[in-house]
Amino acid sequence: MNKPAADPARFRDPLVTLWAFATTVLVRCPSCARRAVVELSQADEPRRARLVCRACGHNAMREDGVYGLGGAVDPCFGLPLWLQTPCRGETLWAFNLEHVELLERYLSARLRERARSPESTWVRNKSLVSRLPTWMKLARHRAEVLRGLGELRRLAAAS
Ligand SMILES: [Zn+2]
Asked: pTM of the predicted model, to two decimals?
């Protein structure tokens, strides 16, 4: 519970990419359909991914790395994400609870700031929040998107 003390109406882009959250991804186990975890090592090259299901003991390893990001699947094994829910005819998804929390902070902030430093080009092009689809960012969708994120939070908390 270490919430930032800053004004919650302000949001400063923390300049993280989606990859920063890909180190721990909650997925649906291909063996028992319960919750499993894909862990992607940051250090090794090629990056090593490990799938572990505590519910049934299923596990798998990939050493040849990564598929790539996109959609409601994990980037290593292509398994369906555990944290996904329909929203506005789209799918709202996240890799893990920290990812949900970042989206909540960003989308509930009334004032979104962009860095006015040399990082600003980087922000425009690469950061996770700068790449969110428009339907998530529209003010008129905000309440529904935040409800969806609440559902993802509930899924993350349930075991
Ligand atoms: Zn399993």
From this structure: 0.85
